[in-house]
Write a structure and sequence with these properties.
about 90 residues; mainly alpha; 2 domains
Length: about 90
């Protein structure tokens, strides 16, 4: 099955009349939702996920920028010092 769209899911849920109908919808979309894939591969730890995403963004911004000031601007941070603090917490050196 092709990845279901949000509109498709809403339409299918509108057709649900019985528990069996709901089970059919669940079976159709199982494995397509981002959270399904996340739970299969990792522990369900929000703090760990946030740490990994933050680290990835900071590292990418540092690669694309010549200075820490440019990287902090690229990330939309209020100041250069916020980036420096993040880097310390994330164990990132430039």
């Amino acid at each position: 099955m092709e990845k279901p769209t949000f509109r498709y899911l809403l339409d299918r849920l509108g057709d649900v009349k019985t528990q069996s109908d709901l089970e059919d919808v669940k079976y159709e979309i199982e494995g397509f939702l981002p959270l399904d894939r996340f739970e299969e591969t990792q522990d369900f730890d929000v703090n760990s996920a946030i740490f990994k995403v933050k680290r990835d963004y900071v590292e990418r911004a540092l690669v694309k920028s010549d200075t820490l000031y440019e990287a902090s601007d690229l990330l939309g941070l209020k100041s250069y010092q916020v980036l420096v603090n993040w880097m310390k917490k994330l164990g990132i050196k430039k």
